[in-house]
Amino acid sequence: MGAESDPFFQAMKVGAQDEATKLGAELIWQGDPKEYSPATQIPVVDQVLAQKPDGLVLIPTDPDALQPSVTKAVDAGVIVANVDTRVTDLSKVLTFITGDNADGGAKAAEAIAGAIGYAEGGKYKVVVGLTSETATTNVARLEGFKAAVAAKFPGIEIVDVAYSQSKPEVANTNVNNWLTKYPDLNGIFAIDGTNGQGAAAALQAKGLTGKVALVGYDAYPDNVGLIKTGVFTALIAQDPATEARQAIDSLCTKLGGGDAAGIKAEVVIPNVVLDKNTTEADLKKYTYVA
Q: What global pTM score does this model have?
């Protein structure tokens, strides 16, 4: 994966290790510590493949750039499970497991509309912070967000988008630039956890908590805590640990000669919306554990 230190990927690692231990498999977990880029991920994949693993769980930073890595793995007899973001051609992977990203984007639109008090005839400005133009999860969330806005909230204008490469400090700069450029900004959709971190810090520093609606993605522990203080209106929580567990289980089933007929080509895991009305028990349940 890219940006291994991201709490989403750390939670995924916990799930993968738990399942590998349960099934008696050895897990080698590698990724660039901070960078979210195919330029840094491809050498990591090459290093992993040089160790001649039986199976590979791949979380590609770019659908086209990592496609040759899948081909290289399969040609070497390595079974590949694709998790979270996808490669362009899934025909060579055993299974693709991801969250319902388009639905998550739509849920974010609903949350922002509610937070800004959307009313027919009103005009509202929102911005979207993303990690990458090519990460398929980001693309699907943005598409879902735009579709919901167009269908239900035509008074909302998406005035800008910006990219952070999974770096909170870049996201923070992006948000500060927006706050200067759009002093009448109504809302921010932080399309993943690192963008949420950067946006939250910017709003708090400017004293804009509750004045600019912030809806984020990913239940990082710190971000979940900021629901209670009103910095986040809502967070769209994924289930990274389950994604990883299912990938490891599918690989071990296939490698162990089990019933591969039960392995689905594509698995979509639902999201959960966390907000001020979510119980403490559910906040704890869906917070990512590293």
A: 0.93
